[in-house]
Write a structure and sequence with these properties.
The protein is an alpha+beta fold. The chain contains 16 helices and 24 strands. The strands form 8 sheets. The chain has a 7-stranded mixed β-sheet with strand order 18-19-17-16-22-23-24, sandwiched between helices. It has a 5-stranded mixed β-sheet with strand order 3-2-1-5-15. Helix 11 packs across helix 12 and helix 13 packs across helix 16. The longest helix is centred in the last third of the chain and has 32 residues. The protein is globular. It starts with 7 loop residues before the first strand and ends with a helix.
């Protein structure tokens, strides 16, 4: 049965600092979108928290704005789905009241707990959960809470992952999908259940963990109370959704094994879709939005977050518009030569994940001279993040995984210069999809549930159009290969100094 031209679905994504709602019609076209920023709080060094109520207020603001931009009303919406960063726990009590702010995936407070888990239970965790403990994961975060906030833990009756709490505010349900279940590090993949053994390692009550369903499962409907706040029609079907990287890769058209995706967002990641997980301490594995497929991923903590840090600390002036300043920075970087005249940047502003998994690493600019100006620093930042992604890709190649082409997503993909640098540093073709937002992928999942598309693969094909292609340039690939060796050598040489600087700053 043909879908009405005025029928649509919504995808809602919680990003690092904003929420975006995207409207997609029955032909898989983006019809309208709206976004709203919210604050991230850092009460102590390495901490990163958000108030989930800010997400709800952003949803209530952006849903009517996105529908207005699409020229559609609430009656056109056939389903709503969600995405957000994995790992982020939201804890509520028996009345579903929030107990504390959400600890984000980039929070580093649980470094000691992650090290302890790896030293005492590392092999068993990897065997059961397919992944290695790190401060990114929910399991060490919950372990930290049991030690430092036992009063809060004693009152927990429901654990949500970020997208699931927001969806609960809309539909009143309590579920998660298989991707976010794996992302907690408490899910037993072989047994397809929450693991009593993993929960026991951190003293966590298994009964607080939600039922697990597929991303396209309809888990409820918009309640009358939620409808009054956000402007949707009561009874509108609500679909579970999945993690942001899975949604982004899916929305970028990945529908087969071997598809590669590079993400230039708050964090930078490389992921490759496959038919099975590749279990190794340096790699991360999740079920993919397309049934029967997995995506293997690893990444660097500092990417667009480092780009924003450089802008806000050294380029922004009172009254400036952030997007305009980014464009000015990009032009300055384009005027600087390849290699920034020997200026290197290591993007470890929040410690580092792959390949070092060290929360104590620090960022740096190495090789400054009197010749260097602001454009050199921006170019060095672009190149340093690309080198960090090359470090990440090396983990795949060491395990026999590789890609000749990658679709690029995330806010950093707006820069044509940065895209070309990534192509040259990684040595692969880089393709910019027509749409790159996780909210678009979430909307496509809602479209599957609403019957707009025959299945997930048919939906993913609506994301395969591209806006630009960047081939690696052989001469530039060779220059960057030489510079990458210096990047790695200086990173290794500064590790001990970084640890000693951390001890000094901590009063040790």
């Amino acid at each position: 049965m043909p879908v009405s031209a005025d029928a649509c679905v919504l995808g809602i994504d919680i990003g690092a600092g904003s929420l975006k709602t995207t409207v997609v019609d029955g032909l898989g076209r983006e019809r309208g979108a709206a976004s709203r920023d919210f604050a991230t709080r850092s009460l102590h060094p390495g901490w990163s928290e958000q108030d989930p109520e800010d997400w709800w207020q952003a949803l209530c603001a952006t849903v009517p704005q996105a529908l207005a931009a699409a020229g559609l009303g609430a009656e056109a919406v056939q389903a709503v789905s969600f995405s957000a960063g994995a790992h982020t726990p939201v804890l509520t009590d028996a009345e579903n009241r929030l107990l504390r702010p959400a600890i984000l995936w980039n929070d580093q407070r649980s470094g000691a707990e992650a090290r302890e888990l790896n030293e005492t239970q590392g092999a068993r965790i990897l065997a059961l959960a397919l992944n290695k403990a790190a401060p990114t994961w929910t399991m060490p975060q919950l372990m930290w809470l049991t030690r430092h906030e036992p009063g809060v833990v004693a009152r927990v009756r429901h654990v949500y992952v970020a997208k699931d709490w927001l969806r609960m505010r809309l539909a009143g349900d309590w579920h998660t999908d298989f991707t976010d279940a794996v992302g907690t590090l408490l899910w037993d993949h072989a047994g397809q259940c929450w693991s009593p053994e993993l929960c026991a390692m951190i003293g966590w009550d298994l009964s607080t963990l939600p039922p697990v369903v597929q991303p396209t499962t309809v888990v409820g409907a918009v309640t009358a109370a939620a409808a009054r706040e956000c402007g949707l029609r009561p009874g509108t079907p609500v679909v579970c959704g999945t993690s942001d990287t899975s949604a982004e890769s899916f929305g970028a058209g990945s529908d087969r094994a071997g598809a590669g995706v590079v993400k230039l967002a708050t964090a930078g990641t490389v992921s490759i879709v496959g038919e099975q997980p590749r279990v190794h301490p340096t790699l991360i594995n999740y079920p993919f939005a397309v049934p029967g497929l997995w995506y293997t991923i690893t990444g660097t903590n500092g990417c667009a977050s480092a780009h924003r840090w450089l802008r806000d600390r050294f380029f922004m002036r009172e009254g400036d518009h952030g997007a305009t300043v980014f464009a000015e920075m990009d032009a300055l970087a384009a005027a600087a030569p390849l290699g920034a005249e020997g200026l290197l940047f290591h993007p470890y502003l929040q410690g580092e994940r792959a390949p070092y998994w060290d929360p104590l690493l620090r960022a740096d600019f190495v090789g400054m001279t009197m010749r260097h100006d602001r454009g050199h620093f921006v170019r060095a930042l672009y190149e340093g993040i690309a080198f960090s992604l090359r470090d990440v890709l090396g983990q795949f190649r060491a395990q026999g995984l590789d890609m000749s082409e990658a679709r690029i997503v995330g806010g950093g993909s707006r820069s044509a210069l940065w895209r070309q640098i990534v192509a040259d540093v990684l040595g692969v073709r880089i393709v910019l999809p027509a749409v790159t937002d996780a909210s678009f992928g979430a909307a496509l999942l809602a479209g599957v549930a609403a019957g707009f598309f025959a299945d997930e693969r048919a939906a993913a094909r609506h994301g395969q159009a591209s806006r630009a292609v960047h081939e690696p340039v052989a001469a530039q690939v060779r220059r960057y290969q030489d510079l990458f060796g210096l990047y790695q050598e200086t990173a290794r040489g500064l590790m001990d100094i970084n640890h000693r600087l951390h001890a000094f700053a901590s009063g040790g």
